[in-house]
Design a protein that fits this description.
252 residues; 10% helix; Immunoglobulin-like; five-stranded mixed sheet; Jelly Rolls; mainly beta; globular
Length: 252
Amino acid sequence: MSRFLCLLVLPFAFAAPIASQDKKKDPPPKLLYSVPLVAKVGEKQKLALRGKNLAGVKDVRVIGADGAKVKVLNAKAVGVPNNYPGERVGDSEVEIELDLPKGAKPGAVKLVAANPGGDSNEYALLLRDERPAVAEKEDNGGFDTAQLLTLPCAAEGTIKGERDVDVFKFEGKKGDKVRIEVQAARFGSPVDCFLTVYDAERKIVASADDVAGSADPVLELTLPRDGTCFLALLDAHDLGGPNFGYRLVVTK
């Protein structure tokens, strides 16, 4: 009789360890991009870090900026619009208050988020540099309402909705050499920018989409005539939203 009872008890003795092994840990977080995309140095700012598995994040660390301070304000799941790529847009976010010292160097500052499942990837922040920063202003959706830029500058904007077009303009002279660069996808932004340059007669001078394996267009061109040049930016897939940020750097 005692041998029979032992046989009955043995399966239950192993049941608890097996159940504990089946319990899954939270997957580690993944940081994709920041909203706004461009971070400032020397002042406090609020950033929403978008990505995957961020709803359980309790801690965010700064790498590459001595004296930086960061505070987690909130973490939550967010919806992904229909037909939008979830791996690019992200399904959750963590809101932080970030204070970067004035000496923080572009390309060096990275953020790491942590949840019970572990640490995230190291996300490299896009920082303002010495170029004058210009905030995009709506309505700039056409030639007649194009936003005027004074070169050199870095325009910080957003493709705010589906089929949104942002148009900028600057004055140039024949023979001027101009470099136009979009900074977005390489810093995780979901926007896939398409850039077109028009002359004063609104004829296409040049255009660019993906360059050297990046979804960020870059153009270097010599202006064919004096007068106004127009720059038109849009998402190549006609997507958009408040988190589709970009930085447009224009220099001579």
